[in-house]
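Notebook p. 47: complex prediction with zinc ion.
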Amino acid sequence: MSTLITNIGELVTNAGPGGGFAAMDDAALVIDDGRVAWTGPAASAPAADDRVDAAGRAVLPGFVDSHAHLVFAGERAAEFAARMAGVPYRAGGIASTVTATRAATDAQLEANLRRLAAEMLGQGTTTFECKSGYGLTVADEARSVALAARVTPEVTFLGAHVVPPEFGGATDRYVDLVRGPMLRACAPHARWVDVFCEDGAFGADEARAVLAAGIAAGLMPRIHANQLGPGPGVQVAAEVGAASADHCTFLSDADVDALASSGTVATLLPGVEFSTRQPYPDARRLLRAGVTVAIATDCNPGSCFTSSMPFCVALAVREMGMTTRQAVWSATAGGARALRRDDIGHLGAGARADLVMLAAPSHAYLAYRPGVPQVAAVWRAGRLVLGGRSAR
Ligand SMILES: [Zn+2]
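Predicted complex, structure tokens below:
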């Protein structure tokens, strides 16, 4: 069963030289067997079993949200309101979510997770990464990654999120638990290992120990780095060959060089700066240095409770100096690179047919009309999963 989507006002393929941003006007695209089979001018499109008229609207690769914390219970609106009233953000606020998550049933956690996953899909996200990190016991981390694996293949073990209060600051003892029994219980359900390398969480040596153990267990490394201040996280990421260093808000010149030479993706999370009222990272400095930049939501109940990639694209353009093309590339192809995936984030022939049709004629509308729902339809692996007949 093949589907022709034609009369596309702007088709963003990200199939330029080296996988860079590329788009064509008056385009068409053919989906066959869940994959992109053909793209080109609408006037020369081949026939297909089914036909969708895009009526001049834009079609983009589905968003790839490479950083999200969706397995949790409770909410922290009061903490957000206090922060907006002048109370500074600290990593320790995570503890209140840990308490609520441990007290929740599997069914409650799964319902919240599925609600957020549906919310993401409604905003055009066709792939998302999901971390554990609010359980922080062997049993609670194991059920967190097992629940995450029900909704995405991109599951990250983040036992090293913070040291839970019952350890009374005995970080070494907790790190031993994380890289021993907790990792053994979680690795079968996870693809990635992550650590929050920051003052108030884990230092460089602790991060190295956790990531090395994860790698030995068959997981691939990624890291929370340089969010709240300068620190060693980015250097550790480059050292261990991490797929991505996430946040990158406070970077030295040596950090930028390390990202550029290691190929580690810098994943920027502008919703966090928005929601914590912190200075935004300098995306242009990274791009000038040749660093691959991804944009993700960091959807979590504390520092940033948005699931909206379009919102993050708008912030990246308005607050981090990115062009609309750079921001859309980073939210699609950039996210795919941060997850080491070459089948998503672009619409070249052979790519998985993960598509978003906007209710707008070009990708620029994502930043031009911030806060306005603009997702008209979503296809995942070639199947229309949102939008129904309204897309036809
Ligand atoms: Zn995070």
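Notes: The chain has two domains: 2-62+345-391, 64-338. The CA atoms of residues 155 and 241 lie 18 Å apart.
Next step: compare against the earlier run before touching the bench.
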